[in-house]
Amino acid sequence: MPLFANKFSEEFSALLEKTDVSCYKISQYTCLDQAYLSRLKSGEKQNPSPETVMKISLALAYYSNKAKLRDIQKLFKAIGLSILTSED
Q1: Going residue by residue through the chain (88 aa), what tens digit of pLDDT does each one get?
Q2: Most distant CA pair in the chain: distance in Å?
Q3: CA gyration radius for the chain?
Q4: Whole-angstrom distance, CA of residue 17 vs CA of residue 12
Q5: CATH number of the structural domain 7-78
Q6: 11-16 — which CB contacts under 8 Å span 24+ positions?
Q7: Residue 81: which of 47, 46, 56 has the closest Cα?
Q8: Is residue 58 classed as helix, strand or coil in its secondary structure?
Q9: b/e string for 41-75 if b means 16 or more Cβ within 10 A?
């Protein structure tokens, strides 16, 4: 499967690069399997659960002040969800 096979992998990869956070660091913070995170990044694995995206988001925010709300929103939009209300 090609790199960036889906929108989530594209957004996740870009955010990892922007924040300089590794899949290893995220796995340490979240207890998610590092290999699973790498497969999400490459596009081999698709459609993570909202809970998984939230864990990833919290880890990114913990390790880097470069992770902004709009970046986290992009991760959620990539799985068809939003963290913002219609009033935001």
Answers
A1: 444 457 999 999 999 999 999 999 999 999 999 999 999 999 999 989 999 999 999 999 999 999 999 999 999 999 999 987 765 5
A2: 39
A3: 12
A4: 9
A5: 1.10.260
A6: 11/74, 11/75, 11/77, 11/78, 12/40, 12/41, 12/56, 12/75, 12/78, 13/41, 15/60, 15/67, 15/71, 15/74, 15/75, 16/41, 16/60
A7: 47
A8: helix
A9: bbbbbeebeeebbbbbbebbbebbeebeeebbbbb
Encoding tokens for residue 85?
């209300």
Total number of residues shown for the chain:
88
Q: And the tokens for 4?
A: 């960036």
Structure tokens at 75: 């991760």
